[in-house]
Recover the amino acids of this structure.
């Protein structure tokens, strides 16, 4: 869930107290603005992560974002206003925060999403969703007042897409030299793009290039982005060249649902040993019990979502097993984020290997996964999301029709 930090007017007057040490100064090197009617997105390229605070001002409507311990990089050019975002201004606050002010012609709702940037850099997305009617540009400004924006209303559902393997870890390699890491990245990108086209949904990716990430790092991305769902994409491999089809896995706390699932989990988990990463962490017994409790609920959600995805896949690609499988995949162990792992097909079948290289087939898989995810969230929207509002509206209509 996207957490929001709002200032009260008093806090605003008092200003921020924390002034980061000079050594930790982050630079804002780029700021671009795009708008698509109801939505505007400002994309900020920063040299690192920093704390961001934001609030809304009205009369005229403004979204204000303070980036702590941040300076404008040399050569930073502010974009002109576009669409209903009329102007972008910037200024350094006495407390060392870099303040960005987006003046809008309508009330809006702001969300912040941190993404990984180049190298150690970070990208900050400021998504402004228009919520009110346009106000004339020459409307008389009233005394400045702040209001607490409604909490989390109509926010986007966030799905973290995890293309399996990458970098030094190619994953499974087919007879024709196709590497799993490239197939999973291609499908993952298509899936993320499809999700981003859906109103009320947004994708983040654990990797968008040929880099190695540990399984824990992949889970961390989902947690950092406050994901509502985590989808890991893989390609299976088995000795038999005639086995084909997709499978969907979720985490099991009580052993694998079958021997093949156990072997597969062992192999997908083994990638971290490649880079010499120690997987074992010491866990306190009580902590383990508590973790298992929340994990059990998460697994239940994962199961429902995974069934929807498997069902959607079944309509468009060969499916190997009709049931969602369970195994102890490390990457699925987020205690609070429903997670699934899609084995899209078998690399060991040479005809499937050749298909997996084809953009049309990659797109077919990505579209099917998307349809499953969409179906799941239409029925089970997290509270506070646009999907939840839409579902409530559908139910109200249904009830109204039944009554009259
Ligand atoms: Zn894999």
């Amino acid at each position: 869930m996207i957490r929001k930090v709002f200032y009260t007017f008093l806090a605003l007057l008092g200003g921020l107290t924390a002034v980061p040490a000079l050594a930790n100064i982050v630079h804002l090197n780029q700021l671009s603005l795009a708008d698509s009617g109801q939505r505007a997105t400002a994309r900020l390229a920063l040299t690192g992560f920093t704390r961001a605070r934001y609030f809304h001002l009205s009369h005229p409507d403004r979204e204000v974002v303070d980036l702590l311990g941040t300076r404008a990089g040399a050569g930073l050019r502010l974009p002109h206003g576009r669409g209903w975002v009329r102007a972008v201004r910037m200024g350094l606050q006495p407390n060392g925060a870099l303040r960005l002010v987006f003046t809008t012609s309508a009330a809006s709702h702001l969300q912040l999403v941190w993404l990984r940037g180049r190298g150690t850099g970070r990208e900050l997305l400021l998504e402004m969703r228009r919520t009110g009617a346009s106000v004339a540009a020459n409307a008389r400004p009233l005394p400045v007042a702040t209001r607490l924006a409604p909490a989390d209303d109509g926010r986007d559902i966030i799905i973290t897409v995890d293309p399996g393997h990458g970098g030094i870890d190619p994953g499974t390699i087919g007879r024709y030299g196709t590497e799993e890491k490239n197939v999973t990245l291609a499908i993952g990108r298509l899936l993320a793009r499809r999700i981003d086209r859906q109103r009320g949904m947004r994708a983040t990716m654990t990797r968008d290039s040929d880099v190695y990430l540990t399984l824990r790092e992949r889970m961390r991305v989902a947690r950092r982005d406050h994901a509502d769902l985590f989808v890991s994409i893989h390609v299976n491999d088995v000795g038999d060249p005639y086995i084909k089809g997709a499978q969907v896995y979720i985490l099991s706390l009580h052993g694998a649902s079958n021997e093949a699932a156990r072997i597969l989990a062992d192999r997908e988990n083994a990638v971290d040993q490649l880079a010499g990463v120690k997987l074992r962490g010491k866990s306190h017994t009580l902590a383990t019990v508590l973790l298992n409790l929340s994990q059990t609920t998460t697994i239940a959600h994962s199961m429902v979502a995974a069934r929807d995805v498997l069902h959607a896949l079944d309509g468009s690609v060969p499916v190997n097993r009709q049931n969602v499988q369970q195994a102890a995949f490390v990457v699925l162990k987020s205690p609070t984020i429903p997670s699934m792992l899609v084995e899209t097909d078998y690399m060991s079948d040479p005809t499937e290997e050749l298909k997996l290289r084809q953009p049309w087939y990659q797109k077919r898989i990505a579209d099917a996964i998307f349809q499953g995810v969409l179906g799941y969230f239409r029925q089970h929207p997290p509270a506070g999301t646009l999907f939840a509002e839409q579902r409530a509206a559908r139910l109200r209509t249904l009830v109204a029709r039944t009554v009259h």
Q: What stands out?
A: The two ends are 38 Å apart (CA to CA). Residues 285-314 form the longest helix (30 residues). The pocket of zinc ion is lined by residues 164-165, 171, 180, 234, 268 (CB under 6 Å).
